[in-house]
């Protein structure tokens, strides 16, 4: 059997490498919670990535079981209380240019098994600081039959 | 001195290096999801007297802590919700809405402008059910708007909004904006939420 010519193997590998290098977005926040997003099909894309504030919520993941089994909020890199949301939003606003502040959107990345009580509290806090544009981040897919 | 040829670099290990990098990027890549359902929260304001709304103009959807749906006092499956919401919104009971295709039942909503969907959920409702219900209600509005836009302008509403956002779209944006606003006014999204 003749040996397979592997001369073009580096080229192929480089091609793949470049694809992944370009497609990679380094995660800003290390997630300390389970974050299995729900499905929806009437979705819109968030277009201005730098004008989005992320609020995560869900059960603490395996490594953080000492924080309990109840759904919690994560802001930046740590667990937070509902009351800290206002401060977080104000800090995010202060870090952006003034004219861009009205375009800020809050993206809620919430685990599908979280309960609505927590989300209701988050929404109430957001209303208090007048951050009214929100986006429920979801995966794309049909909702019926899941 | 004689010109010496540069010694050739051994490229044999190039593939190994590339593989190493490739595996590193494969492992660190997380394709972020950046799409979802956009909503606007109602602003905080002092308590004013609530406007008087006729019971027949309200479509109540209640989700309990076991994720069961109660729609207009009847239990309902999630898959039937979209159709029920469309029937309610498109009813046109007072005959002032000439584009409505509903049954014109005097016991249901007067016209799309007056029709309000009220969504109530329990503190223990799971998030995925809430999103599913929201999705179906938004879908009901989108379906109606799409049908209306298709009949009026030969283009679906979702397409019109996509064009509006697309910087490379060659058409007249001013005219498009007007069309979108017209459709939005004909089927305004009136969705109120309560938590028990």
Automatic annotation (TrEMBL), chain A:
Pfam families: ExbD. It is found in: Cell membrane. Keywords: Cell membrane, Membrane, Protein transport, Transmembrane, Transmembrane helix, Transport. GO terms for molecular function: transmembrane transporter activity. GO terms for biological process: protein transport. Its main location: membrane. One of its GO terms (cellular component) is plasma membrane. It is a single-pass membrane protein; Single-pass type II membrane protein. The chain crosses the membrane at residues 6-26. Belongs to the ExbD/TolR family. This is Biopolymer transport protein ExbD/TolR. It comes from Algibacter lectus. The lineage of its organism: Bacteria, Pseudomonadati, Bacteroidota, Flavobacteriia, Flavobacteriales.
Automatic annotation (TrEMBL), chain B:
GO terms for cellular component: plasma membrane. It is found in: Cell membrane. The keyword Ribosomal protein does not apply. This is Biopolymer transport ExbD protein. Belongs to the ExbD/TolR family. Keywords: Cell membrane, Membrane, Protein transport, Transmembrane, Transmembrane helix, Transport. One of its GO terms (molecular function) is transmembrane transporter activity. It is a single-pass membrane protein; Single-pass type II membrane protein. GO terms for biological process: protein transport.
């Amino acid at each position: 059997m003749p040996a397979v010519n592997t001369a073009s193997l580096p080229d192929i590998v480089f091609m793949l490498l470049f694809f992944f290098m370009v497609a990679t977005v380094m995660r800003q926040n290390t997630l300390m919670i389970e974050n299995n997003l729900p499905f929806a099909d009437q979705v819109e894309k968030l277009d201005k990535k730098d004008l989005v504030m992320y609020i995560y919520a869900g059960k603490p993941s395996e490594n953080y079981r000492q924080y309990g089994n109840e759904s919690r909020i994560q802001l930046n890199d740590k667990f937070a209380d509902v009351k800290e949301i206002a401060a977080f939003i104000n800090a995010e606003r202060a870090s952006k240019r003034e004219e861009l502040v009205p375009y800020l959107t809050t993206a809620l990345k919430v685990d599908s098994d979280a309960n609505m009580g927590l989300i209701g509290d988050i929404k109430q806090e957001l209303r208090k600081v007048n951050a009214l544009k929100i986006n429920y981040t979801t995966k794309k897919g049909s909702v019926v039959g899941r | 001195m004689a010109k010496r040829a540069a010694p050739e670099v051994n490229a044999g290990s190039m593939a190994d290096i590339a593989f190493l990098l490739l595996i590193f990027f494969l492992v660190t890549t997380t394709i972020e999801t950046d799409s979802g359902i956009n909503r606007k929260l109602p602003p905080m304001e002092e308590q004013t007297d609530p406007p008087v709304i006729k019971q027949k103009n309200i479509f109540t959807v209640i989700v309990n802590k076991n994720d069961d749906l109660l729609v207009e006092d009847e239990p309902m499956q999630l898959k039937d919700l979209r159709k029920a919401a469309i029937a309610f919104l498109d009813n046109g009971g007072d005959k002032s809405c000439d584009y409505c295709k509903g049954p014109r039942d005097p016991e249901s909503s007067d016209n799309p402008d007056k029709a309000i969907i009220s969504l109530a959920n329990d503190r223990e409702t799971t998030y995925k059910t809430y999103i599913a219900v929201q999705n179906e209600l938004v879908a009901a509005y989108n379906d109606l708007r799409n049908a209306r836009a298709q009949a009026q302008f030969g283009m679906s509403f979702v397409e019109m909004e996509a064009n509006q956002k697309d910087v490379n779209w060659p058409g007249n944006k001013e005219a498009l904006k007007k069309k979108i606003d017209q459709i939005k006014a004909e089927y305004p999204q009136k969705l109120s939420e309560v938590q028990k």
